[in-house]
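Q: Could you fold this chain for me?
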Amino acid sequence: MSETILKVQGVSKRFGGLQALSDVGIEIRKGQVYGLIGPNGAGKTTFFNVITGLYIPDAGSFELGGEPYKPSAVHLVAKAGIARTFQNIRLFAEMTALENVMVGRHVRTRSGLGGAVFRTGGFKREEQEIAARAKELLDYVGIGKYAEYKARTLSYGDQRRLEIARALATDPKLIALDEPAAGMNATEKVVLRELIDRIRRDGRTILLIEHDVKLVMGLCDRVTVLDYGKQIAEGTPADVQKNEKVIEAYLGAGGH
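A: Sure. Below is the predicted structure, expressed as structure tokens.
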């Protein structure tokens, strides 16, 4: 059996009088695409934000690649090895696509502030390496021809792919995608699915939070379903689709 990349247990989170999460956990193995679904208000975004350091949990234990990590800040979680995208695209609009990916790569740089200030030889070499790697990643996600375009000029689907390239630039142990298909048309979703499939085939591990149940069921190896902050099902897509609690809470609602 492949190694466990992410193991999260006993996560609880309260906002004032609202218990947003109660004793939630997941275990994701290397090379899996792992889906997290649930109806609106189920707690999936809260759980995702806890894992990636945006919210501080009230309780829970967290391991990444067998090592404990503290999800106390986004930049620390990125350094530990989790890269995330956001439901609302967060790119540097006035920077080029290439520069956006280079920013992601700087999480793994060796030259310190001194190297940047004094433009040392080591710093310049590293900048060239970062630019080359960023270009490779833009090609990888299929938007290499737009390397010198400002991020804001790219189409919606291409901006989504740029976000994924920037996340990959951090060399993550786990890439966490927050509603990547949100706002996409049918053609863009097909391209997205092919890209996620390619990332998985190349040995990456993905956590996917997504409203599009069809996309999740067709793409994920395992799925966890949340409802009212509690875990109501976990298993293969086929198992989850047959689960009575899931049918009642989610798949039977809203015409899915």
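A (continued): The longest helix spans residues 121-141.
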